[in-house]
Design goal:
single chain; 3-stranded antiparallel beta sheet; 22 helices; mainly alpha; about 625 residues
C-alpha cells in the first residue's frame, strides 16, 4: 500500500468520527484512581449503587497487572498510591483479602511501606472514612482564601487545576467529616512514617514549611471562630461561582469531586440544584463496555476538533467541505467571552479564547486557543466576519497572556511561585503553571501564521520575537525541547521546530539542525519513534520507548518543517506508519502519550493515534510534491 492510499484511508476514518453537531471527541484514559475515588465519593454521599460498584470493580480488576499492581500508564512501573486506592476499592466491592489478586496487591503495598507512604490525597480519602486521622494530615486552613494576591501562598499562586482543588479541600478539612465504610485496611499498614513527616534538612525551605505546618495544626485545634466562618463562607461562594453549565468544576475530575464534597459538608442537600446538577454531570463522562464501568477524568472536544480540522486540512480536504465548515462553526460557538481567573493577573485584558472541554468558561487555555486559531484560518466560513472577529480577539488575548520572561503557559500568566510546591500538602503533581515549550511554540506558530495571512490581525512582532528567544533559551543541550503536555522531548521538539520555521528561522539554523539530529539519533530501528513516560523522572528514557503512531508523527512534523521530508529518517518514519496502519484506517496505540502532571498523572488520548499521523502524512506528501 502506498503513502497516498494510507493517508486517504486515515483521512476517511477521521471524517467518519465527526459528531453530527460538528465536533470530534474520543476518550481520555487515565488510571484507576479515578474509578476508585468515584466509588468512595458515592459511598460518602450515601448514593452507592451495587450495580455501579460491581461494574466499576470489574474495570479495576481488569486493569490490574500480573504482579498485582496498578500503574499510572500502560506498561509503567507500579504506583503505590494508585495500587492502594484500587486495592481499597476492591475491598469495598467485596473482594476477599485472601484472594490471589488481593494478596499480590497487599504484598506490594507492604513492601513499599504500606498505606502510610501513599500520597496525601489518598490519605484524605481515608480520613473521610475514619481510616486515617485528620490531625495527621498536612494542614491547609480555609483562611487561605482571604490572602490577597500580593501575599505569598494566596490561592492564585496555585495553578488553576490545583487552586480549585485546594479551595475545596480546605473546606472539607476544616469540617473533618467521618463516615464509616464498615471495613479497615489494617492488613496494608506498616507503621511507616508518612513522607511529609520525615524531617527535612535544617535550613531548607522544606524544613521551614514543616515548622509552619506544626503551627497551622495548633491553629486548627482552636481556630478563630469568626475568622473561620468568614473563610468558609468565602470559600463556599468562590466554589459555587465557578460551577460550569454542565455541572462540573474546571472541566476535570479532581476539583469537581472535591467541590461536591465541600458543598455537601457545608450542608447542601443532594437535591440542591448545584449538587444535583454536579452529580448528574458525571453520566456524560461514564463509559460502560463489556460489563465494566470506567470514567474519563476530562473530555477534550475542543482540542480534538481543532486538531482534527488541522489534520484534515493537511490531508487536502477542501476548505469549503461541509464537514470542515461544520467543525469550524461549532468551534466558533465555543469561544469563551467571559472573564475568568486568568484576569487576576491580567485585569485589563479583554477575553477571547477557547477552553479544552465542552464547558470550562472560567479557564480557557492558550494551547487550545492557538490550535483553534490555526484551524479556523484554514477553512472558508459562511460568516467570515464572525470568524475574523473571533481570531482578532484571540490574538489580543494570547498576546496579553504572555509571561514576563517571553514564554506562554497553559492557563495563567506568570504563575511561577516555587513556594507552593514546598507545602507538605502538595505532594501530587504540578501545582504551578509556568511557561512551557510546547504551548509557547503553538502560540508563536499561531501568531506567525495569522500575521502572514494579512487579514488585519494586530500581531505584535516584538511579542513573537520574545517568544522565539524564550524557545531558544529553553533548548536542551542535546538539541531537544521538554514537552510539558505530551511525552515528552519528542512532543516538545515536534512542536517547536514548526513554530521556529513559521517565525522565519532558517532550516540550516543551528537550533533546527541540532534538534533534527537529536530526533534522528533517537529513531527506533523499526523506523518509528517512541518515548516512555519515565523520561519525566529518568533521563535515561529521553527519546526512548516503543514506537507509537502519535510520537512518530510528532517527529515527522519536525523533520518535514525543517526541510528533511526526503531524508532517510523521515522516509523510514512514513514507512512505519504505512506498515502499521489498521485495515479501518486507524492505528493501535495502547501507550499513553499525553501528560497531565509529569511524574504522577498521564493520559491516553485515544484520538492522538489517528489525528497526528493524518497531519504528518499530509504534510509529508505535500512536501514531496513540492520537491518534485
Amino acid at each position: 500500500m502506498g503513502v497516498e492510499q494510507c493517508l486517504a484511508r486515515a483521512r476517511d476514518r477521521l471524517l467518519s468520527l465527526q459528531d453530527i453537531e460538528g465536533w470530534w471527541k474520543d476518550e481520555l484514559e487515565t488510571n484507576v484512581s479515578i474509578e476508585a475515588e468515584d466509588l468512595f465519593l458515592r459511598e460518602f454521599l450515601g448514593i452507592a449503587d451495587p450495580e455501579i460498584t460491581r461494574q466499576t470493580a470489574n474495570w479495576i480488576r481488569h486493569s490490574q497487572r500480573a504482579d498485582g499492581t496498578w500503574a499510572t500508564f500502560y506498561q509503567g512501573p507500579a504506583d503505590l498510591s494508585v495500587t492502594v486506592e484500587a486495592y481499597w476499592a476492591l475491598r469495598y466491592a467485596g473482594d476477599p483479602i485472601d484472594a490471589d489478586h488481593m494478596t499480590k496487591a497487599a504484598d506490594y503495598i507492604r513492601r513499599e511501606g504500606g498505606l502510610e507512604r501513599s500520597r496525601v490525597f489518598t490519605r484524605i480519602w481515608m480520613a473521610l472514612f475514619g481510616l486515617w486521622r485528620w490531625e495527621d494530615l498536612p494542614a491547609l486552613p480555609p483562611e487561605v482564601i482571604l490572602l490577597p494576591k500580593q501575599v505569598p501562598l494566596n490561592i492564585y499562586d496555585f495553578a488553576c487545576w490545583a487552586r480549585q482543588t485546594v479551595v475545596s479541600l480546605t473546606v472539607v478539612g476544616a469540617h473533618r467529616p467521618v463516615r464509616s465504610m464498615g471495613i479497615n485496611l489494617d492488613e496494608i499498614r506498616t507503621g511507616a512514617t508518612p513522607p511529609e513527616r520525615e524531617l527535612a534538612p535544617p535550613g531548607t525551605v522544606a524544613r521551614r514549611f514543616q515548622r509552619i505546618d506544626r503551627a497551622l495544626h495548633r491553629y486548627e485545634n482552636r481556630p478563630h471562630r469568626r475568622l473561620r466562618e468568614w473563610s468558609l463562607r468565602r470559600a463556599e461562594q468562590w466554589i459555587i461561582a465557578r460551577q460550569e453549565a454542565d455541572g462540573c468544576w474546571g472541566g476535570i475530575q479532581p476539583p469537581w469531586v472535591y467541590s461536591l464534597l465541600a458543598l455537601y459538608v457545608r450542608g447542601y442537600s443532594l437535591h440542591h440544584p448545584i449538587l444535583a446538577q454536579g452529580l448528574a454531570g458525571f453520566d456524560a463522562w461514564t463509559i460502560v463496555e463489556d460489563d465494566m464501568r470506567r470514567l474519563e477524568c476530562c473530555q477534550s472536544p475542543v482540542w480534538d476538533t481543532c486538531l482534527a480540522l488541522n489534520a484534515l486540512a493537511d490531508a487536502g480536504v477542501d476548505p469549503d467541505d461541509p464537514q470542515m465548515e461544520a467543525g469550524a462553526r461549532w468551534l466558533l460557538d465555543q469561544e469563551v467571552q467571559i472573564v475568568g481567573d486568568w484576569a487576576e493577573q491580567r485585569p485589563h485584558l479583554a477575553p477571547g479564547g477557547w477552553a479544552f472541554e465542552f464547558e470550562n468558561n472560567f479557564y480557557p487555555d492558550l494551547d487550545d486557543t492557538a490550535e483553534v486559531a490555526l484551524a479556523l484560518r484554514r477553512i472558508h466560513h459562511a460568516d467570515a466576519k464572525q470568524a475574523n472577529k473571533a481570531l482578532g480577539r484571540a490574538v489580543e488575548w494570547v498576546q496579553g497572556m504572555q509571561c514576563a520572561d517571553g514564554g506562554w503557559a497553559a492557563f495563567d500568566a506568570d504563575n511561577c511561585s516555587p513556594l507552593v510546591a514546598e507545602l507538605p500538602f502538595c505532594d501530587f503533581g504540578e501545582v504551578i503553571d509556568p511557561p512551557s515549550a510546547d504551548v509557547t511554540a503553538h502560540v508563536v506558530e499561531m501568531l506567525c501564521e495569522l500575521d502572514a495571512d494579512e487579514q488585519g490581525m494586530k500581531v505584535d512582532r516584538e511579542a513573537v520575537a520574545r517568544g522565539v528567544q524564550w524557545l531558544s533559551d529553553e533548548q536542551e543541550d542535546d538539541g531537544s525541547w521538554y514537552g510539558r503536555w505530551g511525552a515528552n522531548y519528542i512532543y516538545g521538539t515536534g512542536a517547536v521546530i514548526p513554530a521556529l520555521i513559521s517565525a522565519g528561522v532558517a532550516t540550516d539554523d543551528p537550533r533546527v539542525v541540532r534538534a533534527c539530529q537529536w530526533l534522528e539519533s533517537v529513531q527506533n530501528n523499526d523506523g518509528g519513534w517512541g518515548e516512555d513516560m519515565r523520561s519525566y523522572t529518568d533521563q535515561e528514557w529521553r527519546g526512548r520507548g516503543e514506537s507509537t503512531p502519535s510520537q512518530t508523527a510528532w517527529a515527522l512534523l519536525a523533520l518535514v518543517a525543517a526541510g528533511r521530508a526526503s531524508g532517510e529518517a523521515a522516509r523510514q518514519g512514513v514507512a512505519w506508519l504505512v506498515e502499521n496502519q489498521r485495515r479501518d484506517g486507524d492505528w493501535s496505540e495502547p501507550w499513553y502519550t499525553g501528560t497531565g502532571f509529569s511524574g504522577d498523572f498521564y493520559i491516553r488520548y485515544h484520538l492522538y493515534r489517528l489525528v497526528f499521523p493524518v497531519m504528518a502524512l499530509g504534510r509529508w506528501v505535500r512536501a514531496m510534491e513540492d520537491e518534485a
